[in-house]
Amino acid sequence: MGFLMKILFYFILSSFFTILSAQSSNFKTVAFAQDTMSNDFRKAQVYEVRDELAKYPDLKFIYSDAEGQTSLLIRQIEKFIAMRVDLIILGTNNEEAVVPVISKAYKNGIPVIVLDRGIKGENYTTFINSDNIKIGAIGAEYIAQELHGKGEVLLFEGLQKADVTKLRTKGFMDEISKYKDIKVIKRTGNYLRKDSIIEMEKLIKEKIHIDAIFSQSDSMLSGARSAMQRYKMDPSSIITVGCDYTGEAKEAIKKGTQSGSILFPLGGTKAVEVALKIFAKEDVPKYISIPVKLITKNNVEDVKPIF
Protein backbone atom coordinates (compact mmCIF):
# COMPACT_ATOMS: atom_id res chain seq x y z
CA MET A 1 0.00 0.00 0.00
CA GLY A 2 1.43 3.37 -1.04
CA PHE A 3 1.99 6.25 1.36
CA LEU A 4 -1.03 8.26 0.15
CA MET A 5 -3.23 5.18 0.25
CA LYS A 6 -2.19 4.52 3.85
CA ILE A 7 -3.07 8.09 4.83
CA LEU A 8 -6.45 7.78 3.11
CA PHE A 9 -7.09 4.41 4.83
CA TYR A 10 -6.32 5.73 8.27
CA PHE A 11 -8.41 8.85 7.60
CA ILE A 12 -11.44 6.74 6.63
CA LEU A 13 -10.87 4.43 9.61
CA SER A 14 -10.58 7.37 11.99
CA SER A 15 -13.76 8.93 10.61
CA PHE A 16 -15.61 5.64 11.00
CA PHE A 17 -14.73 5.32 14.68
CA THR A 18 -15.57 8.97 15.28
CA ILE A 19 -19.04 8.43 13.80
CA LEU A 20 -19.43 5.14 15.70
CA SER A 21 -18.44 6.84 18.96
CA ALA A 22 -20.93 9.64 18.36
CA GLN A 23 -23.67 7.14 17.65
CA SER A 24 -22.76 5.06 20.70
CA SER A 25 -23.04 8.11 22.93
CA ASN A 26 -26.77 8.12 22.22
CA PHE A 27 -27.11 4.69 23.77
CA LYS A 28 -27.37 4.10 27.50
CA THR A 29 -26.63 0.86 29.31
CA VAL A 30 -28.72 -0.42 32.19
CA ALA A 31 -27.03 -3.15 34.24
CA PHE A 32 -28.94 -5.43 36.61
CA ALA A 33 -26.75 -6.94 39.33
CA GLN A 34 -28.90 -9.84 40.50
CA ASP A 35 -28.34 -12.05 43.53
CA THR A 36 -29.27 -15.30 41.79
CA MET A 37 -31.09 -16.55 38.74
CA SER A 38 -31.83 -19.87 40.46
CA ASN A 39 -34.70 -18.24 42.33
CA ASP A 40 -37.84 -18.00 40.19
CA PHE A 41 -38.76 -14.57 41.54
CA ARG A 42 -35.28 -13.10 41.02
CA LYS A 43 -35.08 -14.47 37.49
CA ALA A 44 -38.52 -13.09 36.64
CA GLN A 45 -37.42 -9.66 37.92
CA VAL A 46 -34.51 -9.62 35.49
CA TYR A 47 -36.69 -10.71 32.59
CA GLU A 48 -39.34 -8.11 33.37
CA VAL A 49 -36.70 -5.37 33.25
CA ARG A 50 -35.26 -6.85 30.04
CA ASP A 51 -38.65 -6.96 28.34
CA GLU A 52 -39.57 -3.42 29.37
CA LEU A 53 -36.23 -2.01 28.18
CA ALA A 54 -36.58 -3.82 24.86
CA LYS A 55 -39.26 -1.25 23.99
CA TYR A 56 -36.56 1.44 23.84
CA PRO A 57 -34.00 0.97 21.02
CA ASP A 58 -31.54 3.44 22.56
CA LEU A 59 -31.29 1.47 25.82
CA LYS A 60 -29.01 -1.54 26.18
CA PHE A 61 -29.58 -4.13 28.90
CA ILE A 62 -27.02 -6.38 30.57
CA TYR A 63 -27.25 -8.40 33.76
CA SER A 64 -25.15 -10.56 36.04
CA ASP A 65 -25.95 -13.64 38.10
CA ALA A 66 -24.10 -13.83 41.42
CA GLU A 67 -25.36 -17.38 42.02
CA GLY A 68 -26.21 -16.46 45.60
CA GLN A 69 -22.61 -15.49 46.39
CA THR A 70 -22.20 -12.04 47.94
CA SER A 71 -18.52 -11.82 47.04
CA LEU A 72 -19.31 -12.54 43.38
CA LEU A 73 -22.13 -9.96 43.42
CA ILE A 74 -19.66 -7.33 44.65
CA ARG A 75 -17.12 -8.22 41.95
CA GLN A 76 -19.83 -8.01 39.29
CA ILE A 77 -20.89 -4.56 40.48
CA GLU A 78 -17.22 -3.49 40.40
CA LYS A 79 -17.11 -4.62 36.78
CA PHE A 80 -20.21 -2.56 35.95
CA ILE A 81 -18.56 0.48 37.54
CA ALA A 82 -15.39 -0.09 35.48
CA MET A 83 -17.54 -0.37 32.34
CA ARG A 84 -19.12 3.00 33.20
CA VAL A 85 -22.67 1.72 32.72
CA ASP A 86 -25.29 4.44 32.85
CA LEU A 87 -27.46 2.92 35.60
CA ILE A 88 -27.35 -0.04 37.97
CA ILE A 89 -30.35 -1.97 39.29
CA LEU A 90 -29.47 -3.95 42.40
CA GLY A 91 -31.01 -7.17 43.69
CA THR A 92 -28.91 -8.02 46.73
CA ASN A 93 -28.69 -10.92 49.17
CA ASN A 94 -27.01 -8.93 51.95
CA GLU A 95 -28.13 -5.54 53.24
CA GLU A 96 -24.68 -4.61 54.57
CA ALA A 97 -21.92 -6.28 52.53
CA VAL A 98 -22.79 -4.51 49.25
CA VAL A 99 -22.94 -1.03 50.78
CA PRO A 100 -19.30 -0.01 50.03
CA VAL A 101 -19.42 -0.99 46.34
CA ILE A 102 -22.89 0.53 45.83
CA SER A 103 -21.66 3.73 47.52
CA LYS A 104 -18.71 3.71 45.13
CA ALA A 105 -21.01 3.47 42.10
CA TYR A 106 -23.31 6.19 43.42
CA LYS A 107 -20.44 8.56 44.27
CA ASN A 108 -18.99 7.98 40.81
CA GLY A 109 -22.15 9.36 39.26
CA ILE A 110 -23.88 6.11 38.38
CA PRO A 111 -27.55 6.15 39.42
CA VAL A 112 -28.52 3.11 41.50
CA ILE A 113 -32.02 1.65 41.81
CA VAL A 114 -32.24 -0.74 44.77
CA LEU A 115 -34.99 -3.20 43.96
CA ASP A 116 -37.01 -5.24 46.44
CA ARG A 117 -34.32 -5.93 49.07
CA GLY A 118 -32.98 -2.88 50.87
CA ILE A 119 -29.48 -1.89 51.92
CA LYS A 120 -28.07 0.12 54.80
CA GLY A 121 -27.25 3.77 54.25
CA GLU A 122 -28.52 6.34 51.76
CA ASN A 123 -26.02 6.13 48.88
CA TYR A 124 -28.44 5.12 46.16
CA THR A 125 -30.90 6.95 43.92
CA THR A 126 -34.18 5.14 44.54
CA PHE A 127 -35.36 2.18 46.60
CA ILE A 128 -38.37 0.30 45.20
CA ASN A 129 -40.14 -2.32 47.28
CA SER A 130 -43.35 -3.19 49.09
CA ASP A 131 -44.25 -3.03 52.78
CA ASN A 132 -42.70 -6.25 54.06
CA ILE A 133 -43.83 -5.73 57.65
CA LYS A 134 -47.38 -5.48 56.32
CA ILE A 135 -46.86 -8.70 54.32
CA GLY A 136 -45.91 -10.56 57.49
CA ALA A 137 -48.83 -9.08 59.41
CA ILE A 138 -51.34 -10.00 56.66
CA GLY A 139 -50.12 -13.59 56.69
CA ALA A 140 -50.30 -13.83 60.48
CA GLU A 141 -53.77 -12.31 60.70
CA TYR A 142 -55.19 -14.67 58.07
CA ILE A 143 -53.63 -17.76 59.65
CA ALA A 144 -54.77 -16.76 63.15
CA GLN A 145 -58.34 -16.33 61.94
CA GLU A 146 -58.33 -19.65 60.08
CA LEU A 147 -56.94 -21.44 63.16
CA HIS A 148 -59.43 -19.66 65.46
CA GLY A 149 -56.50 -18.41 67.51
CA LYS A 150 -55.03 -21.79 68.40
CA GLY A 151 -52.41 -24.09 66.85
CA GLU A 152 -48.83 -24.77 65.77
CA VAL A 153 -47.47 -22.60 62.95
CA LEU A 154 -44.34 -23.08 60.86
CA LEU A 155 -42.65 -19.85 59.74
CA PHE A 156 -40.48 -20.48 56.68
CA GLU A 157 -37.93 -17.67 56.51
CA GLY A 158 -35.84 -16.58 53.52
CA LEU A 159 -32.23 -15.36 53.44
CA GLN A 160 -31.22 -14.41 56.95
CA LYS A 161 -29.10 -11.42 55.85
CA ALA A 162 -31.78 -9.92 53.60
CA ASP A 163 -33.84 -7.07 55.03
CA VAL A 164 -37.08 -8.46 53.56
CA THR A 165 -36.68 -11.60 55.67
CA LYS A 166 -36.23 -9.63 58.88
CA LEU A 167 -39.14 -7.33 58.10
CA ARG A 168 -41.55 -10.10 57.12
CA THR A 169 -40.62 -12.02 60.25
CA LYS A 170 -41.16 -8.93 62.40
CA GLY A 171 -44.55 -8.24 60.87
CA PHE A 172 -45.60 -11.84 61.29
CA MET A 173 -44.36 -12.26 64.86
CA ASP A 174 -45.76 -8.91 66.03
CA GLU A 175 -49.22 -9.90 64.83
CA ILE A 176 -49.20 -13.60 65.75
CA SER A 177 -47.97 -12.82 69.28
CA LYS A 178 -51.42 -11.37 69.98
CA TYR A 179 -52.69 -14.95 70.01
CA LYS A 180 -51.32 -16.68 73.11
CA ASP A 181 -52.49 -20.13 72.04
CA ILE A 182 -50.56 -20.07 68.77
CA LYS A 183 -47.02 -21.42 68.88
CA VAL A 184 -44.47 -20.66 66.15
CA ILE A 185 -41.45 -22.64 65.00
CA LYS A 186 -39.01 -21.23 62.45
CA ARG A 187 -37.03 -22.82 59.65
CA THR A 188 -34.84 -21.23 56.95
CA GLY A 189 -35.46 -21.99 53.28
CA ASN A 190 -33.38 -19.17 51.70
CA TYR A 191 -36.24 -18.42 49.26
CA LEU A 192 -35.33 -21.64 47.43
CA ARG A 193 -37.59 -24.60 46.70
CA LYS A 194 -34.82 -27.19 47.23
CA ASP A 195 -33.84 -25.81 50.64
CA SER A 196 -37.44 -25.81 51.87
CA ILE A 197 -37.86 -29.44 50.74
CA ILE A 198 -34.89 -30.44 52.88
CA GLU A 199 -36.18 -28.56 55.93
CA MET A 200 -39.75 -29.82 55.54
CA GLU A 201 -38.59 -33.41 55.24
CA LYS A 202 -36.65 -33.02 58.50
CA LEU A 203 -39.80 -31.83 60.26
CA ILE A 204 -41.83 -34.72 58.89
CA LYS A 205 -39.22 -37.28 59.94
CA GLU A 206 -39.08 -35.74 63.40
CA LYS A 207 -42.89 -36.03 63.57
CA ILE A 208 -43.30 -32.35 64.43
CA HIS A 209 -46.97 -31.42 64.17
CA ILE A 210 -47.97 -28.21 62.40
CA ASP A 211 -51.40 -26.76 61.69
CA ALA A 212 -50.30 -23.96 59.36
CA ILE A 213 -47.37 -22.63 57.35
CA PHE A 214 -46.47 -19.05 56.59
CA SER A 215 -43.80 -19.08 53.90
CA GLN A 216 -41.95 -15.91 52.94
CA SER A 217 -42.05 -17.00 49.30
CA ASP A 218 -44.27 -19.20 47.15
CA SER A 219 -41.16 -21.08 45.98
CA MET A 220 -40.45 -22.28 49.50
CA LEU A 221 -44.10 -23.18 50.02
CA SER A 222 -44.00 -25.18 46.80
CA GLY A 223 -41.04 -27.10 48.21
CA ALA A 224 -42.85 -27.76 51.50
CA ARG A 225 -45.90 -28.98 49.58
CA SER A 226 -43.72 -31.28 47.48
CA ALA A 227 -42.17 -32.81 50.61
CA MET A 228 -45.61 -33.37 52.14
CA GLN A 229 -46.87 -35.11 49.02
CA ARG A 230 -43.78 -37.31 48.93
CA TYR A 231 -44.66 -38.54 52.41
CA LYS A 232 -48.32 -39.09 51.47
CA MET A 233 -49.51 -36.04 53.39
CA ASP A 234 -52.35 -33.91 52.05
CA PRO A 235 -51.28 -30.22 51.72
CA SER A 236 -54.93 -29.17 51.87
CA SER A 237 -55.15 -30.54 55.44
CA ILE A 238 -53.30 -27.49 56.82
CA ILE A 239 -53.46 -23.71 56.32
CA THR A 240 -50.68 -22.52 54.00
CA VAL A 241 -49.89 -18.96 52.97
CA GLY A 242 -47.05 -17.90 50.69
CA CYS A 243 -45.73 -14.64 49.28
CA ASP A 244 -45.28 -13.35 45.70
CA TYR A 245 -48.38 -14.89 44.04
CA THR A 246 -46.85 -16.91 41.23
CA GLY A 247 -48.73 -18.85 38.55
CA GLU A 248 -47.98 -22.05 40.46
CA ALA A 249 -49.45 -20.53 43.62
CA LYS A 250 -52.58 -19.51 41.71
CA GLU A 251 -53.16 -23.07 40.52
CA ALA A 252 -52.51 -24.47 44.01
CA ILE A 253 -55.02 -22.02 45.53
CA LYS A 254 -57.61 -23.04 42.93
CA LYS A 255 -57.00 -26.73 43.74
CA GLY A 256 -57.15 -26.10 47.48
CA THR A 257 -53.58 -27.27 48.15
CA GLN A 258 -52.58 -23.72 49.12
CA SER A 259 -54.75 -21.41 51.19
CA GLY A 260 -53.42 -18.07 50.04
CA SER A 261 -50.57 -15.94 48.75
CA ILE A 262 -49.65 -12.32 49.33
CA LEU A 263 -49.12 -10.48 46.05
CA PHE A 264 -45.61 -9.05 45.95
CA PRO A 265 -44.96 -7.34 42.58
CA LEU A 266 -41.64 -7.94 40.81
CA GLY A 267 -40.96 -4.23 40.54
CA GLY A 268 -39.12 -4.51 37.22
CA THR A 269 -41.59 -2.37 35.29
CA LYS A 270 -41.46 0.30 37.98
CA ALA A 271 -37.64 0.20 37.93
CA VAL A 272 -37.60 0.89 34.19
CA GLU A 273 -40.12 3.70 34.65
CA VAL A 274 -37.79 5.28 37.22
CA ALA A 275 -34.73 4.71 35.02
CA LEU A 276 -36.38 6.57 32.14
CA LYS A 277 -37.08 9.53 34.42
CA ILE A 278 -33.48 9.52 35.62
CA PHE A 279 -32.20 9.54 32.04
CA ALA A 280 -34.59 12.40 31.28
CA LYS A 281 -33.03 14.24 34.26
CA GLU A 282 -36.33 14.32 36.12
CA ASP A 283 -36.51 14.15 39.90
CA VAL A 284 -37.39 10.74 41.31
CA PRO A 285 -38.48 9.79 44.85
CA LYS A 286 -35.92 8.27 47.21
CA TYR A 287 -38.44 5.57 48.12
CA ILE A 288 -41.30 4.02 46.14
CA SER A 289 -43.71 1.51 47.69
CA ILE A 290 -45.77 -0.92 45.56
CA PRO A 291 -49.07 -2.08 47.13
CA VAL A 292 -49.56 -5.68 48.30
CA LYS A 293 -52.73 -7.75 48.81
CA LEU A 294 -53.85 -11.15 50.03
CA ILE A 295 -55.01 -13.61 47.37
CA THR A 296 -57.31 -16.48 48.37
CA LYS A 297 -60.01 -18.54 46.64
CA ASN A 298 -62.27 -15.51 46.93
CA ASN A 299 -60.26 -13.39 44.47
CA VAL A 300 -57.81 -15.78 42.81
CA GLU A 301 -59.49 -15.44 39.41
CA ASP A 302 -59.43 -11.66 39.55
CA VAL A 303 -55.71 -11.10 40.04
CA LYS A 304 -52.95 -11.85 37.53
CA PRO A 305 -49.91 -13.73 38.94
CA ILE A 306 -46.54 -11.99 38.81
CA PHE A 307 -45.23 -14.74 36.51
Provide a short characterization of the protein structure.
This protein is α/β, with parallel strands linked by helices and 307 residues long. The chain has helices at 3-24, 40-53, 70-83, 99-107, 132-146, 163-176, 193-205, 218-230, 247-255, 268-279; strands spanning 28-34, 59-65, 87-91, 112-115, 126-129, 150-157, 181-188, 212-215, 239-244, 260-263, 287-289, 293-295.
The first-level CATH class of the largest domain is given as: Alpha Beta
What's the name of the CATH homologous superfamily of the largest domain? Answer: Response regulator
Per DSSP, the total helix count is 10
Whole-number mean pLDDT: 93
Straight-line N-to-C gap: 60 Å
Measured as a percent range, the helix fraction is: 40-55%
Counting DSSP E segments of at least 2 residues, the number of strands comes to: 12
Q: In CATH terms, what is the architecture of the largest domain?
A: 3-Layer(aba) Sandwich
Order of helices and strands: HEHEHEHEEHEHEHEHEHEHEE
The domain tally reads 2
Principal-axis shape? elongated
Instruction: State Rg.
Output: 23 Å
Measured by DSSP, the beta-strand proportion falls in 15-25%
Q: Strand order within the widest sheet?
A: 2-1-3-4-5-11
| Estimated structural class | alpha/beta
Per the CATH scheme, the topology name of the largest domain is Rossmann fold
Q: Give the biggest sheet.
A: 6 strands, parallel
Walk me through this protein's architecture.
With 307 residues, this protein is α/β, with parallel strands linked by helices. The protein has two domains: 7-129 and 266-289, Response regulator (Rossmann fold, 3-Layer(aba) Sandwich), CATH 3.40.50.2300; 132-263, Response regulator (Rossmann fold). Helix content is 44%, strand content 21%. It is built from ten helices and twelve strands. It has helices at 3-24, 40-53, 70-83, 99-107, 132-146, 163-176, 193-205, 218-230, 247-255, 268-279, and strands at 28-34, 59-65, 87-91, 112-115, 126-129, 150-157, 181-188, 212-215, 239-244, 260-263, 287-289, 293-295. The strands form two sheets. The protein has a six-stranded parallel sheet with strand order 2-1-3-4-5-11, with helices on both faces. Strands 7-6-8-9-10-12 form a six-stranded mixed sheet, sandwiched between helices. Strand 3, helix 4 (99-107) and strand 4 form a beta-alpha-beta unit. Helix 2 (40-53) runs parallel beside helix 10.
